[in-house]
Amino acid sequence: MSLKVTPANPMFTTVLKSTLGRYVVYKNRVEFAREDLSRWHAIQPPYLILANHVNNLDPFWLGYFSKDPIHFVVSDEQYRNPVKRFFLRNLLGGIPKTKFISDMDTIKGILRLVKSGHAIGIFPEGMRTWDGRTGDIIESTSKLVKLLKIPVIACTLDGAHLAHPRWAISGRRGKVTIRIQDIMDGETLKGMDVPSIHKWLTHALDHDEYAAQRSEPIRYKGEKLAEKLERFLFACPHCDSITTLHSENNLLYCSECHYAVTYNEFGGFEPHTHELIFSNPRDWNTWQRDFLKLRLETRPEKEVIFSDHAMLYSADKQKPLEKRTDGVLTLTPEEIYFSESGTSLHFPFRHIAGMNVQYSNELEFYFKDTLYRFKFSDSGASAYKWTAALELKAASLPIKKYHDKRVGGIYGIDLAQRHGFSFYFALSRNGYLFKEIHSGTQSTFNSHFHCRRICRSDSRTRSPQYCPAQYADA
To answer: For the chain: N or C, fewer Cβ within 10 A?
Structure first.
């Protein structure tokens, strides 16, 4: 289901800025360096503004300080609600995008708006950060930058993560600063290759909230500061148990070994019952991912790593979700499966596409072109641990080989995994990209979008690099 992209309504965006925009900026103590703002306002659209994604209010904050309406790339989840869909499509100029899945309609919408002279906003990580660090910049964003050849403004939102961590149920009173890290004009970008653009973006958007706190500590005041931190931190470093962490007020504790820490106003930990193991959630997360990776690599294929009670919903791409049934979602080293009333749905890792977390604790992914969402019975259940497991498994999947005389000598096929999106590249002898196979389906691209050549290998995904007109992971 594709949605038409239309320009934002200038009158509506002006009213929104002066009302809701002014309120969320004042409430969260958001500021923009005056000299940075002057540099931004000197640029005439079309242009791209790219920023790290840390808070649900990021688009409102950027939109408030902009002199031009910004057309943001928005998760298609927001279009399932008819009210949100009306505002995004008819008044705000939103560009719908399925998370971590190629979407040509998104690219076409961006090209149409750029051609009309509008500003485009993208959060190139594709999701909000969990630990305050800028995540991997999705490479297709760099390809899009190369394709568009328009000015790019790269900025960071400092303090926005601690003002409302992704796992938290409420915000905190602190300071948020928007900084322009760099501006690149279209002519300069025209002369750069994609790897150079990607390297520049990665450097320009890099931000570590906890490193910033070490150099300039800022308090973020609120109540029940640790509430629902177990949505993010799922493994206990004291006893190695999974899903035994719980929170209450400012306390995070393990029900198995009773290890406990206090979450403070600086976003760090203080000892409560035992000697402190990690001083902040970022370092704890680094350890728990390594711990989970070891579990997935060393445990038997059928052994249960963890499970959660959940309600199952399903839908086609942008249609409303339909409630199916409740049951238990289980993860093993080889697959995810959902059990209810003696029957099971099995989801092998290699066929899961676009896995992501919605609303902090709901898990969703595509399997054979159907969207599945799992709403956990426990509001503190960690959906993050499921995406972490898939990302760790994706990095270890082997390369597949394929040969088919019918297509003129396809000599190889690579399985690539990026944030849970599995896809195959079939390469002909002359280097043309032939097919994409994802979620168990095949599709052949129109010749207009065929790559003219395969540039060089991407060592991270072990897949050929591809042209920006083909994929839109941003």
So the answer is: N
**What is the helix, strand, coil percentage profile of the chain, to 5?**
30, 30, 40
Residue 25 belongs to some domain of the structure: yes
Decide: helix, strand or coil at residue 78.
helix
- The answer to whether 170 and 223 have CB atoms below 8 angstroms apart is yes
Question: For the whole model, what pTM was predicted?
Answer: 0.82
The three-state secondary structure class of 266 is coil
- ∠ CA 63-68-72, nearest 5°, is 50
89 close to 7: Cβ distance less than 8 angstroms = no
- Strand boundaries in 273-389, DSSP class E: 306-315, 322-331, 335-340, 343-348, 352-358, 362-367, 370-376
Tokens encoding 432: 């043309």
Q: Which letter does DSSP use for residue 404 in this model?
A: B
Instruction: Supply the pLDDT for residue 251.
Output: 98
132 and 72 in one domain?
Answer: yes
Q: Give, as one character, the DSSP assignment of residue 77.
A: G
pLDDT computed for residue 128 by the predictor: 93
What are the tens digits of pLDDT across the range 180-224? 999 999 999 999 999 999 999 999 999 999 999 999 999 999 999
CA distance 140 to 273: 46
Boundary of a domain, candidates 215, 237, 267: 215
Dihedral, CA of residue 51, residue 54, residue 60 and residue 62, to nearest 10? -30
377-405: pLDDT as tens digits:
999 999 999 999 999 998 876 644 333 33
C-alpha atoms less than 13 angstroms from C-alpha of 424 in its C-beta half-sphere: 23
Amino acid at the residue 243: T
